[in-house]
Amino acid sequence: MHHPFKVGFCFPKFLRRDKGESGTSHGVSVSEILAVRELDVDSGTKDDGRWQKMPQKSTEAYPYAFTVSYVERAWQHRWRCSDVTFHCLEGALCQQWVQTIREQLTALTSRPKHLLVYINPYGGKQQGERIYEQKVAPLFTLASISTHVIVTEHANHARDHLRTEAELKKYDGVVCVGGDGMFSEMVHGLVSRTQRDNGVDQNSPEEKLVPCTLRIGIIPAGSTDCICYATVGINDPVTSALHIIVGDAQAMDVCSVHHNNTFLRYSVSLLGYGFYGDVLADSERKRWMGPARYDFSGFKTFLTHHYYEGTVSFLPATDILGTPRDKTRCRAGCFICQHNGQLYSEDHQPLFLLPEYKGGWRVIRGKFLAINAASMSCACPRSPKGLSPAAHLADGTTDLILVRKCSRFNFLRHLLRHTSKYDQFDMTFVEVHRVRRFRFTPRYCQSDSELDLRENGKKLFSQICRDHPACSCSPAYSSWNCDGEILPHAAIEVGLVRIEGKILDENLLQSAQTGVKVHLPFGQRP
Ligand SMILES: CCCCCCCCCCCCC/C=C/[C@@H](O)[C@H](COP(=O)(O)O)NC(=O)CCCCCCCCCCCCCCC
Ligand SMILES: Nc1ncnc2c1ncn2[C@@H]1O[C@H](COP(=O)(O)OP(=O)(O)O)[C@@H](O)[C@H]1O
Ligand SMILES: [Ca+2]
């Protein structure tokens, strides 16, 4: 929402001088102002030396000035920081302007003032620290945001710190600099901490979770950055930093993944078995290649062309608006998310939990090349429309995509359609369902000893087969790719996380099911 107060810079005693024009008017919504600084015209600069001295003629005529930094929209959902400097004849008037703008900014309560930042120095192209120092930290300083920065030293460092040690009361939000794996660490750390503090057991699939009050900001510095891309519309660190500064928020769906009633993980983007599980398992051994490891392993996995037998059971979401084949796309303020989210508000018991719910479970047995559950579009630079282009960020559903065994040629056609305007679901061997819950059981039971071996990274016969494309037999199991982390269990139960209690604010109203808010609405703000 735009703040009603607008700074109209066509005040008669002011003259805009930043681009050599005189007397032009300039409207900036207060909600998009990042900072305001008084300028000492005589010395050219008052604050940080960024502002160039004005030409002698104009400084003589207008000895007082202030600079406003604000958000400017650039191409393809990118945001940039722009400055405009205003000159004035009277010092008191200049100060009045600066003070008024500052007061307006202080009144914006959704803006963070203190942030806890975790940087993964090994994510993506290993540029996390550089990206943060060069592109993000200066913007936080400009916006007077104080930060506590932790560069992680090992995997799960951020998750464990958030879960046990971090003094969360001191912060208005947490920020991760990395990819989807780092975001996942944040979600797990924050959700566990919140449940533990409130005495809620995460293990029970029926348990309602207490929502987290802190928002998570993502500075993209990973390999896929799908969560950032799908929420903001682009994976650009400066754009994300600006969304964080202005206090934007977007609720998002969270799925919980269980195995035999034991909680395994949460997922917010992709849960993929078969193709995406195999790509991930192969690519983990090639981290040194950076983001290109996914293309290499993707090509290799495409050639192996393994299918997996099993049974998928799911509970279709029949009480909602929207389908996975819609042409509309989910954006900030999405009507469908608002409507469907209200089905879960305090006054409404979710219909599918009622005994008379007419949807019922559906069961599909078969041989699958891929089983994907996309809780959001999963748009990313490789596929700007994503795995399920019409999926919603916070509607309380996930899109279950089943790709049955087909020829290599047809599977390639299906994959290629993720990168073009053609519909990847419009193929006889592909089906898509919008679901509340689903379950997968592989045809052959996985023994506990087999699971132990997989968890400990030792190879089984089936995995040895997987590594030899020439071998024609398909292994019995794949693994699940859960937001880029491998789950060794083939049999899983998945459900949208339900949130207990009051709707916190209008952002959470979008989805009372959602436990996590990110700092990033999609593209244009409403
Ligand atoms: C022929 C080209 C086909 C392109 C098909 C592209 C479909 C891409 C959809 C990607 C969905 C990604 C969902 C996001 C998952 C992430 O959470 C997760 C973790 O991200 P992080 O590393 O930042 O922490 N990322 C991933 O699991 C990576 C999945 C990437 C899959 C890339 C697949 C490339 C396939 C290339 C096939 C090539 C066949 C060529 C035949 C001639
Ligand atoms: N300091 C660290 N050293 C090694 N691994 C780390 C570190 N910090 C985080 N990780 C782990 O790195 C993995 C990948 O992180 P991510 O930021 O998603 O990058 P990418 O997108 O390249 O996969 C995650 O599993 C995360 O837990
Ligand atoms: Ca969703």
TrEMBL record:
GO terms assigned for molecular function: ceramide kinase activity
One of the GO biological process terms: ceramide metabolic process
All copies of domain DAGKc, residue ranges: 110-261
Gene3D superfamilies from the UniProt entry: 2.60.200.40, Probable inorganic polyphosphate/atp-NAD kinase, domain 1
SUPFAM superfamilies for this protein: NAD kinase/diacylglycerol kinase-like
Pfam families with a match to the protein in the record: CERK_C, DAGK_cat, PH_CERK
GO CC field: membrane
PANTHER family: CERAMIDE KINASE, SPHINGOSINE KINASE
Protein name: Ceramide kinase
Lineage start: Eukaryota, Metazoa, Chordata, Craniata, Vertebrata
